[in-house]
Task: inverse folding
């Protein structure tokens, strides 16, 4: 087992009727002037916004609201939000939403003192300070609520890239699984696929960290059983709660300890898909690509893929495991081919160029243009 440092400073407040704690948490931390960042309004429809407003008002916190963060959030919108935050001299940011809202909030947070946020994504600048971040999570999927990563799309340059900095771990995150009952079925399925993908990106790097591999595969099995329940019973609180915690564990460091930083090729490929077509949800792209990537690379490290097929999918071969996963994704209503999400073979070279501009991919085996072409072909 490799040496490691584990440090996750995010405080999690989890459970029914916990959103009302946000005002007290922000006040206790010493802030009274904040930016509230949100998406297109689902938080007004499901009552989250009024709970937040009430709690902030009760604790005399002055609030500056900035709305319309888009799924697959953009650099352009983040720059507008950054200016609004600076003009109003906010002391902290409260992100209320899913991964897109949280990631844009992280990007704004580190932009303090950096003229061009994109330089952070290009790894030209290492952030030295950040505004403190608080989160109310409304969609369990990305793990952004308890990690140090953010993903943003630079539409002009056709890049959807990520950065990581310990400065952007949220100070406090509130997860009330009950507010996820308003999610459309499609988003619940996307959350399941994304969380499973985070686990797999790390799992397949496993060699001798038995404890991590065992915890990781158990969380994978739990996600499958809980999303199954939610598929037929979206109002099952226990299934929402169990899945929500699995999703956080899938990318908060616990299930990736001693896994060499993970694989992440499938995520890189998916980010290219949603950079080219922002209507493709992250979970949908992964649902199409993960089975194809496994099919292409498993022979290079067969023992761990065989273990996954047996312990996660209860099958006797990797290809049977892949088939079981595809069947499950299909049952949840997720797409399993590139065609279903609007891509044609003529798009392959554009996708591959995006992936290669990003670089940093292909750890289990090094992948070149022809390998990426074959993976996309398998996903077609
Ligand atoms: O616009 P709003 O009103 O917020 O509606 C959202 C959005 O339309 C809606 N929604 C959220 N909570 C809801 C709800 N609708 C009804 N009831 C609720 N309780 O769901 C839609 C999708 O939201 P979004 O935030 O885009 O989804 P998700 O959480 O899947 O985030 C995806 C983004 O995160 C990135 C993805 O690439 C993508 O850009 N990722 C971030 C990671 C990270 N920071 O660690 C890792 C991931 O691998 C991923 O790359
Ligand atoms: Zn993901």
Result:
């Amino acid at each position: 087992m490799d040496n490691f440092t584990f440090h996750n400073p995010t405080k999690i407040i989890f459970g029914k009727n916990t959103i009302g704690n946000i005002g007290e948490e922000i006040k206790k931390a010493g802030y009274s002037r904040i930016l509230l960042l949100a998406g297109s309004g689902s938080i007004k429809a499901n009552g989250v916004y009024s709970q937040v407003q009430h709690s902030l008002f009760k604790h005399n916190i002055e609030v500056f609201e900035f709305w319309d963060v888009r799924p697959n959030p953009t650099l352009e919108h983040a720059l507008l939000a950054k200016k609004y935050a600076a003009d109003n001299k906010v002391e902290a940011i409260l992100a209320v939403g899913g991964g897109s809202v949280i990631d844009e909030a992280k990007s704004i947070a580190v932009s303090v003192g950096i003229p061009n946020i994109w330089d952070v994504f290009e790894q030209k600048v290492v952030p030295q300070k950040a505004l403190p971040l608080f989160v109310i999570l409304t969609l369990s999927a990305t793990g952004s609520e308890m990690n140090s990563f953010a993903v943003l799309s630079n539409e002009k340059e056709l890049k959807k890239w990520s950065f990581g900095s310990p400065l952007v771990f949220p100070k406090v995150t509130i997860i009330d699984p009950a507010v996820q009952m308003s999610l459309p079925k499609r988003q619940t399925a996307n959350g399941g696929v994304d969380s499973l993908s985070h686990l797999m990106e790390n799992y397949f790097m496993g060699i001798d960290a038995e404890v991590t591999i065992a915890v990781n595969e158990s969380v994978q099995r739990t996600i499958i059983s809980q999303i199954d329940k939610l598929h037929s019973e979206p109002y099952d609180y226990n299934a929402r709660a169990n899945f929500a915690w699995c999703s956080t564990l899938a990318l908060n460091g616990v299930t990736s300890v001693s896994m060499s930083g993970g694989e992440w090729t499938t995520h890189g490929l998916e980010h290219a898909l949603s950079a080219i077509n922002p209507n493709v949800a992250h979970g949908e792209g992964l649902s199409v690509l993960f089975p194809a990537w496994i099919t292409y690379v498993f022979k290079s490290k067969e023992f761990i893929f065989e273990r996954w097929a047996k312990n996660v999918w209860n099958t006797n071969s990797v290809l049977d495991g892949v088939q079981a996963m595809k069947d499950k994704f299909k049952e949840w209503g997720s797409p399993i081919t590139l065609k279903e999400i609007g891509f044609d073979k003529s798009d392959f070279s554009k996708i591959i160029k995006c992936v290669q501009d990003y670089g940093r991919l292909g750890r289990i085996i090094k992948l070149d243009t022809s390998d990426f072409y074959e993976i996309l072909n398998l996903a077609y």
